[in-house]
Every structure is written in structure tokens, then in C-alpha cells.
Amino acid sequence: MSSTYFHQGLFETEDGAPLWFESRGEPGAVPVVLNDGLGCDGFIWRYLWEPLTAKRRVMHWNYRGHGRSGVAPDDSRIGMEYITDDLARLMDAQKLESAVMFGHSMGVQVCLEFHRRHRSRVKGLVLICGSYGTPLDTWHDHTLLRVAFPWLLKAVEGSPHLAKRIMGRVLNTQLAVEFGIRTELNPALIKPNDFAPYMEHLAKMNPLYFVRTLDSLKDHSAWDHLPYVDVPTLVVGGEGDRFTPIWLSQRMAEFIPRSEYVYVPGGSHTAPLERPGLVNSAIDRFLRERVSVNSP
Fold this sequence. Notes:
By secondary structure, this protein is of the alpha/beta class.
């Protein structure tokens, strides 16, 4: 498919972090910004690109230390406290005054925090398979990760090169892809080739930047902000999501005023890849009916 607009490149932040982005699509309708999950570089949007860019401009970007984005010379400057500022400046550079914010997984926290800090720049929210905050407390519906994380952080900070070698060898294999599908996703719905790019990116990612980003997320929460979300909002939850259990999506939809909720039967944390027809249809209807140039 050909698009009227296409541009990709690197944008350098004030503290020297090069952020990769791409922007493409048709002008006209309210533009969209795609915000990834932790350790992701865009695999989840595979089936959304074509329907979205057919009607609007779409920008996707990589957080610091993710995908093709780098970090600042001070590589401790990474995580949630920098993401919303990075996004605002990137939108300035791309002359995007406002947009519909899409978020998957950690991207849901990003969208909610961005709305808190830059409300006038948000025309709508599409929150997919994510949490409003403190994800270590709800992963797999227990707090084991919260207990184990300080040890993981210490191990990676202490031996980052060893951690990188281990991640590279273990994750970038077909066995790792199959194991991830069978234990975390719905093997009856997900295509291995749709999930493999996530594992490939994670295998190449510097684990130091992964754990530092996760460290910045563990105590962040937009729970208190949910009642103040004043833009059209669509919440999508997967029935079998174990990373961010579906009750989190249901709770967000309950506490965000006038939000809509879409339940994905059989869907896991990768519901947009498992049931793209259902998810895409719900998003298309939401954008047509609820989001316009004059949305608040």
C-alpha cells in the first residue's frame, strides 16, 4: 500500500538521546501516535498499520534504549520520567499539535501519564492490554515479580555484559518463541511469525535498559488520574491476558468517564495479533464515531 506521507529518522533530545520514529499515512482525520510496551519495538501494531494509515497520519516511535533509539550519554536517564517529555518534543518536531494516543501494555501507562501532563495534546485514548500502573504488583495476578525484581535489577546492574550474552543466547531461538507462545499467549490464535519479532528484539536489547525502564514503572501509577480523563477512551482487554490480567482493563473502563470497553474472547496480552478483525473493527468504529477534529 502506498501512503501520501512517509518519513522516518532520528530525533535528538536535549540531553543527547537519539529517538527513532516513523510517520506515515494519509492526511485528513485526527492523527495517531503508537506507544509500545516494555521491551517492544512495534510488533504489536502489525495488523493495525494498514487500516490506520488509510485514513490518517500515524506516528510510531521507540523509547530510549528500545529498538533503534539510543540513550543519553548519562544512560541512567531512562524510563517513565523521561518518556512523556520525549514524546511531547518529538510531536513538536513533527508538527503534531495533538493526536489519538494508542498504548499497548506499558504504553497504556505512557498514554495516561501523557494525558495527565499534556491534556490539550490528546484527542482520544486507545488503551490495549495494559495497566494504569504498578505492573509488578499484578503480573500473573500475584506479587512474585515485585519480590524478585530487586535481585534481578542488582544482578543485571552488576554484570550487564553477562546478562546481555545470556539474553541473546536464550531468547533468540525458536524454542524460546514456542515456549513464550505456549505459556503466555493463546497458541490456537497467535501465529509464531507474528510473535517472533518481539523475541528477536528482546534478545538484542540491552538488558540494563530493560530493567532500568521497568524500575521506573514499578511504582508509577495513573490510578488517581483515571476520573479526570476527559477525552473519548477505548479500553481493550484480552480474556486470557496474564501479563496484565483482564480485571485491570475492566477497572480502567469503569473509572474513566464515558469510556468504552472491548472484551476479546480467547485473547491474551497480544490480542491485536490474535483477533485482529475484532480489535481493528472496534477501533475503526470508535475513531469514526467518537473522535473528530473537534474532540475535546
